[in-house]
Specification:
The chain has 478 residues and is α/β, with parallel strands linked by helices. The protein has 13 helices and 17 strands. The N terminus is likely disordered.
Length: 478
Amino acid sequence: MINPLFTRRRMLDWSTASLTGTILTSLLMRDNAAGAASLTADATGSPHFAGKAKRVIHLCLCGGVSHIDSFDYKPELAKFHGKSLQSEERPATFFNQIGLIRKNDWEFKQRGQSGLWVSDLFPHLATVADELTVIRSMVAESANHTPATFEENTGFRLNGFPVMGAWVSYGLGSETDDLPSYVVLPDARGLPAGGTINWSNGFLPAEHQGVAFQSKGPAIHDLFPARELPAGQDSTSRELLAEINRRHALGRGSEDALVARMRSYELAAKMQLAVPLVTDLNQESMATRQMYGLDNETTADFARRCLMARRLLEQGVRFVQLFSGGSFGSPRINWDGHEDVKENHTREAGRMDQPVAALLKDLRQRGMLDDTLVLCTSEFGRTPFTQSGADQVGTGRDHNMYGFSIWMAGAGLKHGVAYGSTDELGWKAQDKPVHWYDYHATVMHLLGIDHQRLTYYHNGIQRRLTNVHGEVLRDILA
């Protein structure tokens, strides 16, 4: 019997104040979006061919990591330290404060059996150098954080386009009915440049938008009703909903498309059970928690998110994105080392180096790295000359969109290798320059997706992640 105290008004109030209401709205938006644009036959929720990777963890290091202090060893910097840049072509940098050349602030060593060059900035990542595939010849089209971050995630400098995680969700679908296919774990200190638009579905159906989980406190706000419900009231409301659905099916037939929509709304109830379980890190062993650095105040935040990322993948989440760094301005709580690269990067690397290395080791020992792709990117690099007066060797470096490094690891890649190169000072990509289009095309290829075939009709154009560009970097494929 229906509880008379559970009125229609209270039911609506409960649904709008809980995760159920949020997902209900999202699914309705998805239905409207799908009706407004036609899906291509290629977006079937399955790959175009057998990909090496099934899932992705994407680490976004916000602010611009100095490649010449991390993964791009340039011994010539020491030779020219303190000298003026001798070039007929003056660089265009973000602040145009061209100081003298500065050598790398951390020593480089060849690591592992591969001999990959990694600096002392990342001592823990150095221990897993044989897992890394470093691209040293990345180029971007903007030296401004916000458009450069958009380009890193969407391939476009303007907002309004779907991010890569949304495209992956759209192209491959979900492996779980209990959790979103695309989950975002932001830095607790603040959002990246551009805010939540960095996990937007853009013009794709709303179901492909990234769902942000918190690393502290409740993973999702309003996961449960705003006020405690009397015993049995939740089950009673579900009985009422089931009866409404049954009567609808009797009157209109079980093949009606609305029946499928009703069933999809059950995701809300499933998430109320699944999210607390997947985010309960107390289920992990003490050895695992220590390996990630959960017991260290400096590394604890990123450790929680790395460990949560692995657990989300285990439960079928397709794409997990972690952000390192947040708000811009003063003080900079990110990798934007304008004033003092050594101080800035020491702080930021100290937060994430151990957890990320532990994540790679953990995935490897669990057999997950064979079909998981781990990506680590930054929107651009930093200049080999300092950001200071023309006759000074300052301590900071400006933005550098002309050449920088990212790394990848996991499924389908050659390990312990570096691809491409910058010039002798690390200023501009010289050999095999790689645009974000090429990077995105390669990630999609590893997932079994042809980036030219995965499209979505929007405003008269069959849009795709790589626009009308992109070449798969076949030289880094195993």
